[in-house]
Specification:
The structure holds three protein chains of three kinds. Chain A is an alpha+beta fold. Chain A has helices spanning 42-50, 92-103, 107-120, 136-148, 166-183, 194-200, 218-223, 228-233, 251-255; strands at 4-13, 16-26, 31-35, 57-62, 65-66, 77-80, 154-158, 186-191, 203-208, 211-216, 240-243, 260-263, 268-270, 278-287, 291-298, 306-312, 322-327, 333-335. The chains are: A alpha+beta, B mainly alpha, C alpha+beta. Chain A: Residues 4-234 form the ABC transporter domain.
């Protein structure tokens, strides 16, 4: 088990800069999730950490030791690939013991470790099958087992659940969380799925266009997004982002120099006409039983201003209905012209370029 | 490619066990030193290690010989070692190319070379026409919905695998004075023909035997091309009421053309280098009627009393230049076909 | 008429009963079978004939030998004939000797009495007989076993070396990015254009310098690195997912181990194709061995056959039998791997 330290890591492919200076410090035993839209560099960052790509600049330390130029095989990390990358010509047992054989671990020890991992992952009955004869979920578990037997310094996961169907994805997500609780290793997990990120991570690293937008605990990111990008990226349905002067709110000392006001759908509340900040017209009602989403257009505003509203329970509203709403003041997110959050307390924003 | 790879699995499994056992033993032996080597030079330099043996072989047996060949062609004498050979400049080439008239080999100083060139040209022209006609015809028949297509394809292909010596001996036995063919001729009321005494017949059978031995290969390429033509194109043509000749001329031929072109160039390249079958079948005879360029090079360098490596080298360089051009054409065509 | 012929050339007909073009197709194929298989069959049949039967003209289809009988009072077995007697009756008689146009014959049942018969009244009694001696004699009289062994050694060793070094090069050229890769690729393509036919003498010099003349290594080594083999294997290795190789690297495998334990097992189908090609090339190789193997002890089968057929008194009965033996392994391999070989060749466009 070990910590990881990245300092000013950059990666260029030819003239294209994919990572534009990453500073990151990961503590021993942490579960870190890299999240971001496709093409943001999260997979590249993981591969740079793994040693499968060499950083163009900056340095990487694992457990205090500099490994920037160390080959992947000598970094002591284990990786679960998106495609699982199981060796198709080897049985499950051979897949899991391959790395241990490479390390020169004695046979008895190999058998013991494979046995234990197989039990943990419910693979004991499949040890002599080839990957081709396994289901998607089982293959996924073999890939994880291959990492576990190594007892690596850090586990790396590259979108490991993206090839599973929705139901299996939820189940495996829970298993991964349980696994982390059980073996307690440092884990770095790449995904584009924010639900995975929110449910699994100790801390989430939000990446965009080769930079870190924000690092924080899941709720931190949800409650206190550092900038417009994170505000829009985390949360589903997305946070409503309105021009500051759209709502009937006093500009003066409350809004300050904010240009954009953000409010999550659950914080937009229907209210009496007199208290309303906005009046909206309902375009679409999504009844989920336990909750209801209203997709609306604000009236009396320039442009087509869309507002999403979440209501607990069920609603009798229908398309075309008009609704006065109030934005809950204590949950307003204010952003300045640069897109950064305006808060009295300092919040770590973008990593410096 | 993938289709080919799927087929052998069952066939490969049993020997695979044996091979795997040997490979594993080899692995145990080679792994520690290779691991040490990687630690010594670093993983980034390992590709050179993997490339090295092949490059050594290519260097020793292809690139170095090409250089030596050029040296040979510009030196004289009978010594094998280039250092012991006196420099003569373009003399060998001049001797090869010294002709009263290029249409009459007898007027050339090195007349055997020119007879070889003439014979090879004759052989190539007839071989190309016959090979394309027969392999195209066979491919068209095999492409029809016939029973036991695999069997017939195998029948035509079978001689491709035979050693040229075996092929030549099979036919030599049939064509000899008291052979099967002459027996058939006399039974039909004709006269025995001494096929290897008559220059025309010797050349005819040289071409015939080459076509017999290799047409299966080209048939296979053309058949693959024919089967790649989508069925619905033919059905559309049928719906349009297209006459058979137009279907062949306007659909089959244009769509097959890339394959046909590759076959033409391949036949050309191999005809220019023809040696084995003809050499064993006729020995170059009668007289010099079937001596080919490669046989000239071989005899000049090895079989003659005086081994003339210089002259052979010069002839090789000339042949090599022709082959180089032809291969470039082939690479160009194959690339265009695959893109 | 021409329309029909053209129909034959173009149509892919469904199973709509027999059309005359179908008949023509099968006729063409039947002639093809006769022409392609016939000569080989004739070779095999002939290889079982005795020397005297081989000299017969016109030759008999099957290997026949004249029947012989032992007759009391004659030390040698006598050849048996069917004789039409003057009275029109037909008898089987053994021939004692032939004098001019008359033959002195004897009835095996009455050994004491000889009969004179004009030679044109008798025909030999013949039966099917396989002259197995054609096959067994060369084993003892010539070094046939040695040639066979030489060919086997060359084929097996050369194929193993080819598989090893070509797969190593293909691995380097498919898995890695490194400085000089394009030069290496160009070099491999370059060798594609240089058949051994045009560098015969210089390769001979190199082999001499290396001290391999008149050893089997002279035949094995020069063709071991084949550009076609490198291309075939590289093309296949490119289809192996990069993830597998990276996973192995994460699993702390050395580069050699990745090659040997991951890439090689996964390339088995392509290796099998190359192995078959290599066996064919080596078993049939002619021009280069002819140039470099001058001592008979190191002759391979094709070279031995060629030397044998060039002798003044060609002993056809032995030559034919040895030709059959040379042809046999290839025929067997083909019989078992026919579909595999044809599809392999159709897909790679080489032989």
């Amino acid at each position: 088990m070990a910590g990881l330290e990245l300092r000013g890591v950059r990666k260029d492919f030819g003239s294209v800069a994919v990572l534009k200076g990453i500073d990151l410090s990961i503590a021993d035993g942490e579960f870190i999730v890299f999240v971001g839209p496709s093409g943001c560099g999260k997979s590249t960052l993981l591969r740079v950490i793994a040693g499968l790509e060499t950083a163009t600049a900056g340095d990487i330390h694992i457990d205090g030791a500099e490994v920037t130029r160390t080959a992947a095989s000598d970094r002591g990390l284990a990786m679960v690939f998106q495609s699982y990358a199981l060796y198709p010509h080897m049985s499950v047992h051979q897949n899991m013991s391959f790395a241990l054989e490479n390390m020169g671990v004695p046979k008895a020890e190999i058998a013991r470790r494979v046995e234990r991992a197989a039990r943990m992952l419910r693979l004991t009955d499949y040890l002599h099958r080839k990957p081709g004869a396994l289901s998607g979920g089982q293959r996924q578990r073999v890939a994880i087992g291959r990492a576990i037997v190594r007892d690596p310094k850090i586990f790396l996961f590259d979108e490991p659940l993206s090839n599973l169907d929705a139901e299996l994805r939820v189940a495996t997500r829970k298993e991964l969380a349980a696994l982390h609780a059980e073996i307690g290793g440092t884990m770095i997990y790449v995904t584009h799925d924010q639900v995975e990120a929110m449910t699994l991570a100790d801390r989430i690293v939000v990446l965009n266009a080769g930079r870190i937008e924000q690092i924080g605990t899941p709720l931190d990111l949800y409650n206190r997004p550092a900038n417009l990008f994170v505000a829009g990226f985390i949360g589903s349905p997305r946070m409503n982002l309105l021009p500051a002067d759209a709502a009937r709110m006093p500009r003066d000392n409350f809004l300050g120099d904010a240009v954009t006001v953000g409010i999550r759908p659950e914080h937009v509340q229907p209210c009496a006409e007199a208290d309303a900040d906005l009046t909206v017209q309902v375009d679409l009602v999504e009844q989920l039983g336990g909750e209801t989403f209203l997709y609306t257009t604000a009236l009396g505003c320039p442009g087509d201003l869309k507002v999403t509203i979440r209501i607990d329970g069920q609603s009798a509203l229908a398309r075309g209905d008009r609704l006065p709403v109030r934005l809950r003041r204590e949950h307003l997110h204010l952003f300045d012209s640069a897109g950064l959050a305006c808060r009295p307390d300092p919040i770590p924003a973008r990593s410096h370029a | 490619m993938t289709d080919m790879m799927r087929l052998p699995e069952a066939a490969a499994r049993r020997p695979a066990g044996l091979v795997a056992g040997g490979a594993q033993a080899l692995m145990r032996l080679t792994d520690p030193p290779m691991r040490a080597l990687q630690r010594l030079i670093g993983a980034a330099r390992m590709p050179y290690v993997f490339l090295l043996p092949n490059l050594v072989f290519f260097g020793l047996f292809v690139f170095l010989p090409i250089a030596i060949n050029i040296v040979f062609s510009m030196t004289g004498g009978t010594a094998l070692y280039p250092a012991e050979r006196p420099y003569v400049g373009a003399e060998q080439y001049a001797r090869l190319l010294d002709c009263g008239s290029y249409l009459d080999p007898g007027s050339c100083q090195e007349d055997l070379f020119w007879r070889g060139v003439g014979n090879t040209l004759t052989f190539t022209v007839f071989q190309m026409v016959a090979m394309v006609l027969f392999s195209l015809g066979t491919a068209l028949v095999l492409n029809r919905p016939i029973r036991a297509r695999g069997f017939f394809r195998a029948v035509y292909f079978f001689p491709v695998l035979l050693s040229p010596v075996v092929v030549a001996l099979i036919w030599k036995w049939i064509l000899q004075r008291d052979g099967l063919l002459n027996a058939a001729l006399t039974m039909a009321g004709g006269q025995k023909i001494l096929f290897f005494v008559d220059p025309g017949w010797a050349m005819f059978w040289s071409v015939f035997v080459s076509v017999w031995a290799h047409m299966g290969f080209y048939t296979l390429i053309l058949l693959a091309g024919l089967q790649a033509i989508p069925r619905d194109v033919y059905e559309a043509a049928e719906m349009d009421g297209t006459r058979p000749w137009r279907v062949f001329h306007r659909i089959t031929l244009p769509l097959l053309w890339p394959n046909l072109l590759v076959v033409l160039v391949l036949v050309l390249i191999r005809s220019v280098q023809v040696f084995d079958e003809v050499f064993v079948l006729t020995g170059g005879g009668p007289g010099t009627a079937t001596v080919m360029i490669v046989q000239y090079i071989y005899t000049t360098a090895f079989a003659n009393q005086v081994q003339n490596f210089g002259l052979a080298g010069a002839a090789s360089v000339l042949l090599g230049a022709v082959l180089f051009v032809l291969t470039m054409v082939q690479l160009f065509l194959t690339r265009r076909r695959s893109s | 008429m021409t329309g029909g012929l053209l129909r034959l050339l173009t149509l892919r007909r469904g199973g709509r009963g027999w059309h005359w073009t179908d008949v023509a197709s099968y006729a063409y194929l039947a002639v093809g079978v006769l022409l392609m298989f016939g000569p080989v069959l004739w070779l095999v049949l002939s290889s079982f004939k005795t020397p005297s039967a081989l000299l017969e003209f016109p030759p008999s289809l099957l290997p026949m030998a004249q029947a012989e009988v032992r007759v009391e009072g004659y030390p040698q077995p006598l050849p048996l004939f069917t004789v039409t007697m003057e009275d029109g009756s037909v008898r089987e008689l053994a021939q004692v000797r032939r004098i001019g146009i008359a033959a002195q014959m004897v009835d095996p049942k009455e050994p004491a009495k000889t009969i004179r018969v004009p030679v044109d009244r008798r025909t030999p009694v013949r039966h099917l007989a396989f002259a197995v001696g054609n096959y067994t004699d060369p084993l003892t009289q010539f070094d046939f076993l040695r040639y066979l062994r030489n060919s086997l050694v060359v084929t097996v060793v050369a194929t193993l070396i080819t598989l090893l070094i070509n797969s190593m090069a293909a691995y380097a050229l498919s898995v890695y990015e490194f400085r000089g890769k394009s030069v290496a690729m160009l070099g491999v393509i370059g060798t594609l254009m240089i058949p051994i036919t045009i560098i015969l003498a210089p390769v001979y010099l190199v082999v001499t310098k290396l001290g391999f003349v008149d050893s089997l290594w002279a035949v094995i080594l020069p063709g071991a690195a084949t550009p076609t083999g490198v291309f075939l294997l590289r093309q296949y290795m490119l289809t192996i997912p990069r993830d597998l190789i990276e996973a192995a690297r994460m699993d702390k495998a050395s580069e050699w181990r990745i090659y040997a334990r991951i890439v090689m097992p996964l390339s088995l189908p392509a290796l099998a194709v190359l192995a078959i090609f290599s066996v064919m090339w080596r078993w049939n190789d002619f021009l280069w061995p002819l140039a470099v193997l001058t001592k008979t002890e190191v002759h391979t089968l094709p070279i031995a056959l060629n030397a044998f057929q060039g002798e003044l008194q060609t002993q056809w009965h032995y030559l034919l039998a040895m030709t059959v033996v040379t042809l046999l392994p290839v025929a067997l391999v083909f019989a078992f791997l026919q579909r595999f070989i044809t599809s392999g060749i159709a897909n790679t466009g080489m032989k």
